[in-house]
Design a protein that fits this description.
Length: 248
Amino acid sequence: MPSFYRLVAHDRIDSTSEEAKRLAASGAVEGTLVWAREQTAGRGRRGRVWSSPPGNLYVSLVLRPACAPGAAAQLGFAAAVGLGAALESLLPAGAGMLQFKWPNDLLVERRKIAGILLDASTGADGRLDWLILGIGVNIESFPDQTSYGATSLRDVGAGAVTVEQVLEVLGVHLLRTLDQWRREGFAPIRRQWLSHALGLGERIDVRLEQDTLSGRFVELSDSGALTLELPQGERRIIAAGDVFYPAL
């Protein structure tokens, strides 16, 4: 594991993200990485339950980026690019194409293999005080009930890979993409994410708080928002929502 990280390991915990938030609020340094072999209260986006049995990877990283809150979403895409590179190095030949599903999932053969969750806190100066990158990877198992199917490294033929190996490889690639974001900004991260984007140019459905929009996924904005072209030709910029693909 690169020296940037300070590993905090647990056999069993409620949630690595909740623990990382507790540590960040009490002054934990950037690079604090909470790892648990099992979570009893894992969660995904919008408070959804994240099944967290032993055998999969559950980690949360404390970051303290010197950026405005509006740029925080960029780090989720940087994490996706780093995680994607890590998984591609572990996937066997012929496992299928790895793709990114907006805003925070990674899929193989259009089935979810990993997810990312962001939590953040803003300081008195209006800038980010800390940001937590929560990452889960299906290694040995995956949940049966998902909206568009799931898979695991074992299921796609990488069954000999251990949790420790995935953690090590992730640490290397994640550090690389976070450094790239700091040095070069969001543009190269955005290009890499788009090169693996699921449904780019296709019709998608976006479920908002009180509405569902259908249109063509045409772009990712400089802030990480999704650009949707509606049937009438109007374009909508969507910062938050759940995306569904009729083709899945």
